[in-house]
Design goal:
By secondary structure, the protein is α+β, with helices and mostly antiparallel strands. Helices cover 24% and strands 21% of the residues. It has 4 domains: 7-102, no CATH class; 108-151, no CATH class; 166-349 and 472-490, Vaccinia Virus protein VP39 (Rossmann fold); 356-468, Alpha-Beta Complex (DNA Methylase, Chain A, domain 2), CATH 3.90.120.10. It is built from 14 helices and 22 strands. The longest helix has 15 residues, at 473-487.
């Protein structure tokens, strides 16, 4: 929590204006250089005191004759920001003034009219924050006969009681394109028996470091071989297959060798994966990929899956990790298929709301917290100009990289918000909210909800390459529970 001298409703609509003697006590004395940043996505305007800038705190003489500091910003974008929102609050802290809207309506609409149940603090007790859809909340209070306790059921439907879990047999599993094991880790933790895992040797950054990491955290059952070389003799019979097919040829951002531009309607790796599923005699399988996987060529991939497995029923879902309580906004597409049974990927009705600050709590003592790239002098200079939640567009034009001009480059995380989708920390420059350095291996792992016990092996570049391709642990845990609960009754 910030130590604010006050948090009050801000009523001016035509400009950003503050005058008060106490501004000087919080780093905004007369003549102090300042800069401001507008974050439309998160609904905030932040005014910060800086070492150098043309814009400065001015002075005004009050009716009492006293000269006091005044901040007066009449920019058009500020007026537009204030005019588009009904209630603005101002909060003053050391070196920073924050104007924030009361409700971020656009985000709530995206999240299906989500109501946030904020944290409550009583003496030393801290309660987590949760979010719930308005429709589900209406059901709990009156609309339908479900109780508030039903809302906080973390598993999706068809859940199995703890007593029943003790009687379960382990579901055998086959994992393809397993990477470093961030997906398999959750399935292992949920009691799956992983009989076989596979990934190939990567000639560039990864080499075999992802396989080393998998063995260290999951087990020695992983086979390092190109999936296209596997034969039916290599594949054991299993109950369930999980496949995280490489996403490069499906990515909307890929301008070379993209499946959408292919003349063929058959994707070689997808076809091989379907062969392996057939060889395994699995009763269910799960695909994980980028959102475009289920959209490319008007849904051709899903159509092909159904053609190859006509006796299976399918459910698709695009899941944002924040919908399951992650501190990182990360959308991925999932396809779940079960033999002769309609699957479900319904998300929990209530989820925890976590910020970057929540994710980083206690990280100083965690393993691999001391592992991070050292920024070059140029990168370091750019970092100094970027406020929390900002990006390269906050950097003076003369300091920007010629080909790195998009807002997803050089991003400083905001402590009180969720992180954007993390790609390679060094390549795209993701850095700490309050420190002039890249994110560490452990901080990045926390943004993927990975437990601190999960350790990465190999070079620094390889570790962040693995993280770039990771599946959020809260998402993979949800999937593991969902598959277990729906597959057990038919085995």
């Amino acid at each position: 929590m910030r130590e604010a001298i006050k948090r009050r409703l801000y009523k001016l609509k035509d400009r950003l204006y503050l005058e008060a003697k106490y501004l000087a006590d919080y780093g905004f004395g007369i003549g102090q250089p300042i800069r401001y940043d507008i974050d439309k996505q998160n609904g905030t305007i932040t005014v910060e005191s800086v070492k150098e800038n043309k814009k400065r705190v001015a002075k005004t003489t009050q009716k009492t004759g006293k000269t006091v500091p005044v901040i007066d910003i009449k920019a058009t974008e500020v007026k537009s920001f204030f005019a588009s929102h009904g209630r603005i609050f101002v909060e003053i802290v050391k070196g920073k003034i924050i104007f924030s809207i009361e409700e971020v309506v656009e985000e709530q609409q995206i999240c299906d009219n989500v109501v946030s149940l904020d944290s409550v603090r009583e003496t030393k007790t801290v309660f987590n924050r949760y979010a719930v859809g308005l429709n589900e909340f209406a059901k709990a209070v009156n609309f339908e006969q479900i109780t508030i306790f039903d809302l906080f059921q973390n598993d999706s439907k068809n859940s199995i009681s703890n007593k029943e879990k003790g009687k379960e047999k382990a579901i055998s599993m086959l994992s393809l394109f397993s990477g470093c094991g961030t997906m398999d880790k959750a399935f292992l933790d949920q009691g799956f028996d992983i009989k076989f895992a596979n990934d190939r040797y990567e000639k560039k950054a990864l080499k075999d470091y992802h396989v080393q990491t998998y063995k260290h955290n999951i087990g020695d059952h992983i086979l390092m071989r190109d999936v296209m070389e596997l034969t039916e003799k290599d594949i054991p019979e299993t109950d369930f297959v999980c496949a995280g097919i490489p996403c490069v040829t499906f990515s909307a951002l890929n301008t070379k060798n993209n499946f959408r531009d292919s003349e063929s309607d058959l994707h070689p790796i997808v076809e091989k994966t379907l062969d392996i599923i057939r060889w395994s005699k699995a009763k269910a399988f799960l695909f994980e990929n980028v959102v475009n996987f289920i959209k490319v060529k008007k849904g051709l991939i899903l159509q092909r899956l159904k053609e190859r497995f006509p006796d299976f029923l399918f459910e698709t879902k695009v899941i944002d990790a924040t919908d399951l309580g992650s501190a990182q906004k990360r959308k991925r597409a999932f396809v779940l298929a079960i033999h002769d049974t309609m699957p479900s990927l319904d998300l929990p009705l209530v989820h925890e709301v976590r910020t970057v600050k929540d994710a980083f709590k206690g990280v100083e003592l965690a393993t691999q917290q001391d592992e991070f790239f050292t920024p070059t002098p140029k990168i370091l200079e750019r970092m100094k100009h970027v406020p929390q939640g900002g990006n390269v567009l906050d950097v003076p034009v003369e300091l920007r990289a010629p080909r790195k001009t998009f807002s997803n480059y050089c991003q400083r995380l905001s402590e009180r918000n969720q992180a954007p989708t993390i790609t390679h920390v060094q390549d795209d420059v993701f850095f700490h909210p309050t420190k002039e350095r890249y994110l560490t291996v452990r901080e990045t792992s926390r943004l993927f909800s990975l437990p601190d016990e999960f350790e990465f092996k190999g070079s620094m570049t390889a570790k962040f390459e693995m993280l770039k391709n990771a599946v959020d642990y809260r998402v993979s845990t949800f999937l593991a529970k969902t598959v277990r609960n729906q597959l057990m009754p038919i085995l």
